[in-house]
């Protein structure tokens, strides 16, 4: 049995390039139509590769599998997870250029979260943050890390003590310092990042309020008290960066703006100070974003 993290596609490509003739033929045949390979009977696969049936069985065992069935199961799993990356389509689609694809995906992502957001939950989350003694934003990976850092960036200018942490151990250590005046904001596209989930559970144990931006029905959603649900369709274009980034930024801005409105004049005064400082360094400060 191949190990759990065995990359079957990478191994097939290696064999196709450097394996002996018959193995190279089999690997190339599988890679040319991996979906066919997962469903075809052994005789059809052998026919496609131009080899004998025993060669197919030997090939699967050479890769570390018990037989063709075991091999097909693992290949099917790989296809389900990352099949679109095995034989990617064109960088552009029939609906337009790269610029229009990116613009359309960003708009669709923002509209999706606008339709999902619950206004009452947004108001509740903003109230918790506006009254917090400390807000900690947690995120792991790419988009979630960026969103956590951006949340800190949005909140400090409103006069809220805020920090962001993208390292799992730091998330758990800072969570252990929580109390009833702490609010944890956790970001995760998958909702299944174990250190992040554990940090949220640790913080709750010490009385912190917990808010999660994640997909409904996930472990993170179950761990947090308040969930801002979202799920963005990643599509099939492997060249396009994930539009989930736009969704997370939109949610972050919605929450930050609601918090600012709740704080009111004190938040405006702090923003005025930042803008005043900005004017000392830029002649066009009036037209620039606040401190960005």
From TrEMBL:
Residues 125-265 form the SIS domain. PANTHER family: GLUCOKINASE, HTH-TYPE TRANSCRIPTIONAL REGULATOR HEXR-RELATED. CDD domains: SIS_RpiR (cd05013). The keyword Transcription regulation applies. It holds the Pfam family SIS. The lineage of its organism: Bacteria, Pseudomonadati, Pseudomonadota, Alphaproteobacteria, Hyphomicrobiales. It comes from the Bacteria. This is DNA-binding MurR/RpiR family transcriptional regulator. Residues 6-82 form the HTH rpiR-type domain. Keywords: DNA-binding, Transcription, Transcription regulation. SUPFAM superfamilies: Homeodomain-like, SIS domain. One of its GO terms (molecular function) is DNA binding. The keyword DNA-binding applies. Gene3D superfamilies: Glucose-6-phosphate isomerase like protein, domain 1, Winged helix-like DNA-binding domain superfamily/Winged helix DNA-binding domain.
């Amino acid at each position: 049995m191949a190990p759990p993290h065995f990359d079957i596609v990478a191994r097939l490509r290696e064999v196709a390039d450097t394996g002996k003739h018959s193995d190279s033929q089999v690997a190339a045949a599988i890679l040319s139509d991996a979906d066919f390979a997962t469903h075809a009977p052994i005789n059809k696969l052998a026919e496609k590769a131009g080899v004998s049936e025993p060669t197919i069985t030997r090939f699967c065992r050479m890769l570390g599998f018990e037989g063709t069935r075991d091999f097909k199961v693992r290949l099917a799993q790989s296809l389900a997870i990352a099949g679109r990356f095995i034989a990617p389509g064109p960088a552009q689609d029939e609906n337009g250029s790269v610029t229009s694809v990116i613009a359309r995906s960003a708009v669709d992502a923002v509209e999706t979260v606008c339709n999902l957001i619950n206004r009452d939950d947004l108001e509740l989350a903003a109230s918790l943050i506006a009254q917090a003694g400390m807000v900690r934003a947690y995120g792991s990976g790419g988009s979630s890390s960026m969103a956590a850092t951006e949340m800190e960036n949005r909140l400090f200018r409103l006069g809220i003590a805020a920090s962001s942490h993208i390292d799992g151990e730091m998330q758990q250590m800072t969570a252990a310092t929580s109390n009833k005046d702490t609010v944890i904001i956790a970001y995760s596209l998958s909702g299944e990042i174990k250190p992040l989930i554990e940090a949220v559970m640790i913080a709750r144990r010490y009385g912190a309020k917990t808010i999660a931006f994640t997909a409904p029905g996930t472990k993170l959603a179950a761990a947090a008290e308040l969930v801002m649900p979202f799920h963005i369709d990643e599509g099939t274009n492997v060249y396009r960066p994930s539009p989930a980034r736009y969704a997370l930024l939109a949610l972050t801005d919605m929450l930050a703006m609601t918090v600012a409105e709740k704080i009111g004049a004190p938040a405006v005064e702090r923003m005025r100070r930042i803008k005043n400082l900005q004017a000392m360094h830029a002649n066009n400060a009036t037209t620039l974003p606040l401190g960005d």
